[in-house]
Specification:
This protein has helices spanning about 1-20, 65-85, 130-140, 155-185, and strands at about 35-45, 50-60, 90-105, 110-125, 145-155, 190-205, 205, 230-240. It has about 240 residues and is an alpha+beta fold. It has two domains: about 30-50 and about 155-215 and about 225-240, Protein of unknown function (DUF541), domain 1 (Translation Initiation Factor IF3); about 50-105 and about 115-155, Protein of unknown function (DUF541), domain 2 (Alpha-Beta Plaits), CATH 3.30.70. It has a five-stranded antiparallel β-sheet with strand order 3-4-2-5-7.
Length: about 240
Amino acid sequence: MKHMKIAFIALLLLVTLAACETRVVTTGPEQQHTLNVQGTSEFDVSPDIAKIRFRVETQSLNAQEAQAQNRQIANSVHSALLQAGVRENELETTDFRLDKVQEWDQKEQRMVDKGYRASNAFVVTTKDLEAVGKLLDTGVQAGANNVESLSFELSDTRSKEVKTEALRKAATNAKEKAQALADGAGVSLGKVASITENSYVVMPYARYDLQSMKAEAGAAPSPISPENVHINAQVSVAYELA
């Protein structure tokens, strides 16, 4: 019995020592510490183009008649805009539809046919921002019964220039933030480890309250002032810490 007790104590000691075993884990080289910051830039720029979206709608009991009326008015609007100085390549048809029109008849308690509606939408793009009011009036006088929107935007060439400027300013802003953080923490900035463009947003100025615009023949052009385009860019930059 005594021998069994000694054997049990010896076994218990072996288990305890095994549980207390120390393991040494070898790791790779320590990673370089980095400082991650976001830089932003936000500013307004003057637009260099304007886009006017006209729509011509006609309705008739006959589909062919609705189309013919629409074509006649749309051609009249196009001709008037060309005479007002718009170039052929500045006029673009964006949508044409022919829809069956039905309305709910309260008396008969059912949908009844009201004919067909033809709809033709097109965009005028112009670099002459001072002529926007004149072009709006010209289109309405010639028969366009809906001015869907007016927007002041950037051309492709100008947009590229502005994007370069926006990203440069965002990167400069990131560097200023990183330097301030490093100075406050008592460390030195090293080289850039990575830089990423997070976003670039262009917000043109647009108006959608022009549907009821009416222009009287011989009246002064509607006063339209160009509005700025808003730019916002964000980048992420990681700096190594020396």
